[in-house]
Specification:
Elements: E1 3-6, E2 9-12, H1 26-45, H2 53-72, H3 97-106, H4 112-120, H5 136-160, H6 165-180, H7 185-203, H8 208-225, H9 236-264
Antiparallel strand pairs: 1-2
């Protein structure tokens, strides 16, 4: 058992918690586990294990999901059930079904940016896409990948850095940027921007599993349905547009809805 030294004496440090108590060294565990994940991903990417890109993607997301479960531990039950206490020892970090409905209502706001970009570029804002032609296995894979990213890059970061909202944003968005960086800097910019927007949806009280579903839908919308700009998804200007729009929406939503939530957090 560790000790925390403070002016006026020595105080016993609290350990890992599964029920919303102070999280102790979870922030250190998050940092270490993410570094291990990055090391594993880079090792696979350099062909050490001889895996195909599809196999590497599946293994990396399986690892990410496992690491998230290690950090969340017993708090996993609160992904579906509202806790009867302050989640992660902070009343700002819980969620409600009413807030989840609000999150679903504002989630499509992110699509305004690519539609506006396409219209300004003189391109059709939508690309023909038939959802029924997407294999069920592909949809299931997208949902699992979105769940893994949501639970580690957002929910685990929230638990690890629960005492400081700014730290949650910094760590989560930076983790998203690093996660997508192997796909190129434009993809990392989009990943960081969308990650910040999804984190904001979670922090205004949206259920984490619903955030994962929104993540999967955004992936389909931004890559298959909405025109990604004149040069495709690798276009720097388009990526910067998504990043800027995501940041602006995140600030606006958090300032408006999180401020109100402080007064109605248990609605």
């Amino acid at each position: 058992m560790g000790f925390a030294f403070r002016a006026g004496g020595v105080q016993t440090a609290r350990q890992f918690s599964i029920c919303g108590q102070r999280s102790g060294p979870v922030h250190i565990a998050y940092s270490v586990l993410f570094l291990l994940f990055v090391g594993l991903s880079e090792t696979m990417r350099h062909g050490v294990f001889g895996l195909t890109p599809s196999e590497m993607s599946m293994l990396s997301h399986a690892s990410l999901l496992l690491l998230a479960l290690i950090l969340l531990r017993g708090d996993v039950v609160f992904l579906l059930r509202r806790p009867g206490h302050d989640l992660y020892d902070d009343r700002r970090l819980g969620w409600s079904w009413r807030r989840t409905a609000l999150g679903l209502a504002v989630a499509p706001a992110l699509w305004i940016a690519p539609v506006s970009w396409a219209l300004a570029s003189g391109e059709p804002p939508f690309t023909p896409f038939a959802v029924q032609n997407m294999p069920a296995g592909t949809v299931a894979t997208l949902l699992v990948f979105a769940l893994a990213q949501t639970l580690f890059l957002r929910e685990a970061a929230i638990k690890a850095f629960h005492a400081d909202i700014r730290a949650i944003y910094l760590v989560s968005v930076l983790s998203c940027f690093i996660f997508y960086l192997p796909q190129g800097l434009p993809a990392a910019m989009v990943g960081a921007g969308v990650g910040a927007f999804l984190l904001t949806l979670r922090l205004i009280g949206t259920n984490p599993l619903v955030v994962a579903c929104i993540h999967a839908i955004n992936g389909i919308m931004l890559t298959e349905v909405l025109a990604p700009g004149p040069s495709g998804t690798g276009d720097w200007n388009w990526s910067a547009c998504i990043l800027a729009a995501s940041a602006l929406l995140s600030v606006l939503l958090f300032q408006v809805l999180a401020a109100k939530r402080r007064r109605t957090v248990h609605a």
